[in-house]
Specification:
3 copies of one chain form a homotrimer. By secondary structure, chain A is mostly helical. In chain A, helix 1 runs antiparallel to helix 2, helix 1 packs antiparallel against helix 5 and helix 4 packs parallel to helix 6. At the A-B interface, helix 1 and helix 2 of A face helix 5 of B.
């Protein structure tokens, strides 16, 4: 739960620095989804159905955002280094914390503490979304070419 | 200890972005308290008394800051999403890391590795302080209404 | 691995806020080193040699950067509090996450999951580098005296 809370806050840091309106709008929708995701995980087995918002439909929505954003830019052919813009770096930080949350949710599923597989799929796709959002924000901040990991 | 160090750094990120002088002044006092809190946890049983600074009086001070700041603003009636300002988002991030540190200190107390209960109370109240500071900073940055988790 | 990824992202947040060109250039070289460090840790025992980039030479380079940066400024005589500039605070956050990664790599070495001792030495020196970079950036942002932990 803590990692999900941290991920939401890191996404907030990204949102506060976003220069592309499109990106900020997507981030706020993701933050709303994470809020519901946390509510579902925090709920007891008896009332979990009442809290379920994240389903296959939300994962499909997430994937459609990734496709839409990817189509608008040239995807880098090699590993990039975060830091070409404040918003992009905050999105990279969000991505790494989302991955920490993903490992935690995978463990909960494995231990049968939760049973909604879509939560894990959502977080898995969310790190990809953070990556394309990072590329968009770097461009919106004027970075022409991403800084590559290998030279 | 690591989580406390991370919390202090995240509070630094907040402080560097604060627009309300009142908030920055409170954050620096909290950072000083966390410095003493870490020194106490790092000390051995023999010399712990020499490092003790965080006591019921510091918790009372913290609570008075929460009350003072809460009285100045309208408290939101629903869950809010971090990201309405850079300082507010950094305070939200600080809050989530403080909660991680709180779980760690709770474990140390439970295992009798430390015995000063006020350390846990301080961290518990600190996450509430981070929340009201976030609301203040969002306002100081010109956000008129907090972004709500539910629409 | 996650902690190393988080450290790279936090360094990105620092880099995006750097005002001293010298600091940004050093950070990007460190991010490249961390990329190779992660590749080495992720590799299997059979192909690890192919991924080895971090060696005693890279640690010496890191130490020379610390010496060079330290010689340019007055080192504070007491503990400082992060938050005198956005870049400085992001460097402090990076330092605390690097230390988390360092504990993780120390465990891997202890469990013989990896054998390259230079990875640990690199991370150990990296937190010192983050500290001097923080002092430099605070100055580059116009902070005349560091905020001290004790008053």
């Amino acid at each position: 739960m803590g990692a999900l809370d941290e991920a939401t806050a890191a996404l907030g840091l990204a949102r506060a620095n976003c220069r592309a309106r499109q990106c900020a709008d997507i981030v706020v929708m993701v933050q709303r989804d994470l809020y519901h995701l946390m509510a579902e995980i925090a709920s007891t087995t008896e009332n979990v159905a009442r809290f379920r918002v994240i389903d296959a439909g939300r994962v499909t929505w997430l994937e459609s955002q990734i496709d839409m954003l990817s189509a608008q830019i040239e995807m880098p052919k090699d590993f990039i280094l975060p830091g070409d813009s404040p918003a992009g770096a905050a999105l990279a930080l969000s991505r790494t914390i989302v991955r920490r949350a993903e490992r935690y949710v995978a463990r909960l599923l494995h231990e049968n503490a939760i049973e909604n597989q879509e939560l894990l799929r959502y977080l898995n796709r969310l790190s990809s979304l953070c990556f394309v959002l990072e590329l968009h924000e770097d461009q919106a901040w004027g970075s022409e070419k991403p800084t590559l990991a290998k030279v």
